[in-house]
């Protein structure tokens, strides 16, 4: 099968920033997944608290988990290799239970940097923040408001360890997760696009919130951060004068 489109047409799409057309054109090629990747995602920040609705809602008990919860994790989302690797990397587990039954979980990285090798970026985690990933809710319990309850409870647990900000990344195709994050008041900080082709990487990171940083577009990996949090940390480190 010939490669779709000429080099000139591909460069034109890139120059005109027609990302969807570029991704679709390349995805029709003969490149194996290991040589080609095109992705668009949003980086969120959740801080403060999650407002809970007044209407009746299921009671979700949110607690810290550990390696003894392997069985619970397998019930929430079975994984052949298990979850030992997450614990070995020092990541923290949060479990959500309904009437004692594990039905939801999230994973937390405590920093200082989250690294996404498939998407060629890193993101600095401030001292009062965590990187959240791996949100799972048992299918039978979806659509019942547990996402909001889970994140509300997670923020409560994080307060115990002096963390107040949750950062996460959601791919553009995951419309349900995007809407869920918007609904609980999470702020879209960055829109990140990455193209990886035969060992070369091109990225475009666009700020979506005031003060988080400047746009960065170019070849290679992107090193991102929340500039508002970095500025706050710098102020905290200033010497006290009297």
Low-confidence parts lasting 5 or more residues at pLDDT below 50?
1-5, 234-242
CATH superfamily: Gcn5-related N-acetyltransferase (GNAT)
Main CATH class: Alpha Beta
Instruction: Assign the structural class, choosing from mainly alpha, mainly beta, alpha/beta, alpha+beta, or little secondary structure.
Output: alpha+beta
Number of helices: 7
Strand order of the largest sheet: 2-3-4-7-8-1-9-10-11
The fraction of residues in strands falls at 25-35%
Choose one word for the global shape.
globular
Q: What radius of gyration results from the CA coordinates?
A: 20 Å
Order of helices and strands: HHEEHHEEEEEHEHEEEEH
Short description:
The chain has 242 residues and is α+β, with helices and mostly antiparallel strands. 26% of the residues lie in helices and 34% in strands. The chain starts with 6 loop residues before the first helix and ends in a 6-residue tail after the last helix.
What topology does this entry show?
Elements: H1 7-15, H2 19-27, E1 36-47, E2 61-65, H3 70-76, H4 84-88, E3 92-98, E4 101-109, E5 113-116, E6 121-124, E7 129-137, H5 146-159, E8 165-171, H6 175-183, E9 187-197, E10 200-207, E11 216-219, E12 222-224, H7 227-236
Parallel strand pairs: 6-12, 7-8
Antiparallel strand pairs: 1-8, 1-9, 2-3, 3-4, 4-7, 5-6, 9-10, 10-11
Description:
The chain is α+β, with helices and mostly antiparallel strands and 242 residues long. The protein has one domain (36-235): Aminopeptidase. 26% of the residues lie in helices and 34% in strands. The protein has seven helices and twelve strands. The strands form two sheets. Strands 2-3-4-7-8-1-9-10-11 form a nine-stranded mixed β-sheet, with helices on both faces. Strands 5-6-12 form a three-stranded mixed β-sheet, with no helix packed on it. The radius of gyration is 20 Å and the shape is globular. The protein starts with 6 loop residues before the first helix and ends in a 6-residue tail after the last helix. Mean pLDDT is 88; it is low at 1-5 and 234-242.
């Amino acid at each position: 099968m010939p490669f779709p489109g000429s080099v000139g047409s591909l460069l034109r799409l890139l120059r005109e920033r027609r990302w969807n057309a570029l991704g679709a054109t390349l995805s029709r090629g003969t490149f194996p997944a290991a040589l080609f990747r095109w992705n668009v995602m949003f980086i969120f920040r959740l801080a403060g608290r999650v407002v809970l609705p007044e209407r009746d809602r299921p009671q979700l008990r949110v607690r810290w988990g550990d390696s003894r919860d392997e069985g619970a994790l397998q019930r929430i989302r079975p994984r052949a290799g298990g979850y030992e690797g997450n614990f070995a990397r020092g990541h923290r587990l949060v479990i959500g239970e309904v009437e004692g039954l594990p039905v939801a979980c999230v994973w937390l990285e405590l920093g200082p940097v989250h690294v996404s090798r498939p998407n060629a970026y890193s993101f600095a985690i401030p001292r009062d923040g965590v990187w959240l990933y791996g949100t799972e809710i048992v299918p039978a319990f979806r659509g019942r408001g547990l996402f909001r309850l889970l994140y509300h409870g997670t923020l409560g647990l994080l307060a115990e360890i002096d963390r107040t900000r949750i950062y996460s990344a959601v791919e553009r195709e995951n419309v349900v997760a995007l809407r869920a994050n918007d609904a609980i008041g999470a702020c879209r900080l960055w829109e990140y696009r990455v193209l990886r082709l035969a060992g070369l990487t091109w990225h475009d990171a666009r700020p979506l919130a005031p003060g988080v940083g400047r746009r960065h577009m170019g070849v290679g990996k992107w090193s991102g951060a929340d500039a508002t949090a970095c500025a706050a940390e710098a102020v905290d480190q200033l010497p006290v004068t009297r």
